[in-house]
Structures are given as C-alpha cells and as structure tokens.
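chain below, 389 aa
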Amino acid sequence: MSKELIRLKNVSVAFDDAVILDNLNIYFNDKEFLTLLGPSGCGKTTTLRIIGGFLTPTSGDVLFDGVRINDVPPHKRLVNTVFQKYALFPHLNVFENVAFGLRIPKTDEKGKKVKIPEKEITERVMEMLEVVNLKGFEKRSITSLSGGQQQRVAIARALVNRPKVLLLDEPLGALDMRLRKDMQNELKRIQQAMEITFIYVTHDQEEALAMSDTVVVMDGGKIQQIGTPEDIYNEPKNAFVADFIGESNILDGIMHEDYVVEFFNRKFKCLDKGFAPMEPVDVVIRPEDIDIVAPEKGQLRGTVTSVTFKGVHYDTIVDFKGYKWLIQTTDYHAEGSVIGIILNPDDIHIMKKSEYSGMFGDYSSYSEEYDEIGDASVELDEEESEDED
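prediction:
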C-alpha cells in the first residue's frame, strides 16, 4: 500500500475577493505520478505553488509526512520544481547547469555553512545526466541543445538535489507535438527510475492519460474527480469531466429503474444503477463506442452532415432530428447519407445532474424528440421473455 506523503487540508486561496482554490482536500502518495488536469484558471498551478512553498494558502494546512509546513520556505522543503520556461544559464555548460544548486553552501543543524565536496558533485551530476539520457553532453553549451535536451537538463538540475517530490508545471508546453510524445515516455521512465513522487500540471488530457497513475480533474478551484486514467475516462462523474477528457456526446436522460435509461424518447439498457426512479440524468456516449449499421438495422437513424479525416479515423457528425452527434469510425460515410447506429449497454454511461449539465456534448441544438422507432433493445428483451413464457 502506498504511503501518503503530502496532504492539502481545507486549503483555500483568494486574491481580492476572487476565490482561486475553494476548500481543497487532497493527498499525494509517495512514488506516485499524479497529474493536476484542467483548463486555464482552474487552480492547478496555484495548487503546485502551494506545495512548492511559493504561495501561502489563505486558509488550511499543507502537511508533509504529517508535519505542517505552511511557513517552511521553498529552499527548505524536500521539493523541487521544473517550469515551462526552463530558466537555464546560457553562459554555463550542461554540467555546470546541473551542478549549480550543489555548489551553493548548505546550512547544517548547527547553523554552519557546509559545502559538498567536488568529487561528490561530479558523481551526482554524472549520475543524473545518465538518468536523463544526456551522458556525454556535459561539456555542451545550452544554446547548442534542442528543446527536448534543454528540458532534460532542467529535470536533471531539479533531481540532483535528491528531492522527495518533483513538481512539473506544464514542462512540455514549449515542445512540438512529436517531441512532446517522446518526452511523455521519458518523464514516466525517469519517475520510475528515481522512485520519487511527480506532481504534474497540464491542460492536455492526452498527456495526463498517458503518464499518470492518478489524475485529478479541476475546475473553478475545486476538484471534480480523482481516479486512475481509466476511471476518469470510462466513468466520468459529471458533464465537465466527460467533455474535458476526450470527446463526448452528452444527452438529457431519465433513469426509469436500475439498468434502464430513457433518452431520445425511448428506453435503452445500460450498466448503471443506484438512481432514483425517474431521476433526470446526463447520458454520456463516447464517439468511438458507437457502431454504425444499415439504417433499417439501427436503433436510431440519422443523416451525416460532416466528415473530417483524422488519419486513423473519420470524425463523422450525424444529425438525429436536429441533435448532432460526433461518431468516430474507420469507415467513410459520405455527407448526406443516412445511417443507423447501435448502442450496447456498456456504451452508455449515466451521470448525476450537475451545474455543468446542458453545457457540453451537443454538436448543434436539440430541436425535437426522436420518435421514429420503439425501444429497440428493451423490446427485444421483452419479446425473448414472452417466448420463454
């Protein structure tokens, strides 16, 4: 079982009556790769700054190994930070950039200044350069390095002080897409090799899903959901999470009973339960989960209004009586063609209504109820039951 390392307890931050963090409660485990994910202004970087000691919360406590550290300055915390702007010294070579922090005398328990021996500095710098795959680059100038190599130098400089926690504030933001993907794998490898906690901030959901053990989705200074990448994607808690993590078709529905939901004026089987009878809900259907079939075989029928080639698949917009869905499919369906779709129970995800209901997932505007055919999946089960009787 993972050991808890950091806890933010009832933490709030306000500037000029504007609430940035609203009573945040969260903990971070030792040796965990945790990502704070959300749009600009959601409070994720503020959370990182509080952990790093660059900002003091308006209220609440920051605990490190169970000890309150609200008043502990950044340089005395076992935490280091890598920023989007690497802040490397252009007049120093790679080795000296990494060694910079080690050359600053430290104060021991008796208040005496202590220098790290040069031999130890060399050993620790070379060890870090090997970890970040820059062995042999120690004499290179910073200006001769690529963006990805400069970022590795910044990571090595942060890790050479042997922190227990590394904070990363959108460190891949300045890199091109291909290099970002390469560095995602590299960061995960480094975290596993060093066996320390990484707390990563990004607005890029693909980065969060690719690297993290745990994802924390934030909006409006509050935590919307915490879970594994799989849980966050497959079982979103509300419409904001469903929309922010990937593409979603989000519909109004009514939960008739356990495992039966109504939307588009018909009933469908689902895998969800625990809702009140006839409770209004949000229904999430991921674009890649929808099966396209011949119109006469579909549970729903619609008209293709737009097709965009995405390399691996086509983004196909389909109009169901004025309500447009996004469907992702490897098969091409021309604009104007009529298609049918099939929804299996595990393709349908049910969420409680929230403040975000009605804000996302509609690719046009809902204009009229969909009442072409009966409750295909439910009626099929009822017919089979009657046959058995």
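The chain has two domains: 4-234, 248-388. Confidence is low (pLDDT under 50) at residues 365-374, 382-389.
thats it, cya
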